[in-house]
Amino acid sequence: MNNRLLGLGKKDRERLSELIRQTKGYITVSDASSILNTPPSNTSKILSKLAQKGWLYRIKRGAYIPVPLESKTETISLIDPLVIAERLFSKCYIGGWSAAEYWGFTEQIFKTIIVMTSNKPKDRFPVINETAYKLRTIPDKAFFGLINIWREQGKVSISDPSRTIVDLLNDPMLGGGIRSTGDIFLNYLKSDKKDIDVLIKYAKSIDNGAVFKRLGFLLERFTPDEKAAINICKSNLTKGYSRLDPSIKSGKLITRWKLWVPLSWVKEYQID
Fold first, then answer.
1. Can you give the residue ranges of every domain in the chain?
2. CB-based burial of residue 171 (10 Å sphere; 0-12 exposed, 13-18 middle, 19+ buried)?
3. Is 215 helix (H, G, I), strand (E, B) or coil?
4. Fold topology of 3-66
5. Model confidence, pTM
6. Pair 63, 26: CB distance under 8 Å
7. What is the pLDDT of residues 226-263, one digit of tens each?
């Protein structure tokens, strides 16, 4: 038996085991009350007691996460922020620049973790255990192109390399803006994770006509030899005009891509 278990009585060990088993690592007073068959007021005291003994960590009012058995101290420091996101915001996955960091597409350090979730939280920029999160709500049909990775404390869902790129093309701000997104995309194209066929497949599954406009434009800039993919992008252009970077209002209209491009890009790449 783990030595730390000796700090709990038999009843508390049974309660803790049952809570972990039935909640999969995210414990609320409401759920615990049903599981333990105790009134909410009593349940709150039970959870608080377990937290005081170092077995639970309070992440917000009425919500706790178990401290790993391997932790030698009464601290949450061993809990991976990605695992916390998986437990707290599920159904969700790690995406945007956070996924780009995981896949090695950027050396830039982002202090905030991007979480794509089906939830509609009131606070979209929570700070938990000194880690900042940015939450983006997406529909259930958008949960594709994901894989599970195993961290020390559990499973985490994350966008695969191609899905990561499509998410950034769908919303460049998830990559820190179009300049950073462009750099991430270029690193993807240079990597062994590049898969243009999958990229096109995912782009078709995203309900946003701007994705093919941005994708085609960037392919033309970075890999002009990908003529087949560029032509597919052209054939999937939707009506209306989009912006390469939605945050930049000025620019030059590139009619063949129906895309407003920032003047800095026009000058740098000598776009006509």
1. 3-66, 80-193, 208-272
2. middle
3. helix
4. Arc Repressor Mutant, subunit A (1.10.10)
5. 0.82
6. yes
7. 999 999 999 999 999 999 999 888 789 999 999 999 98
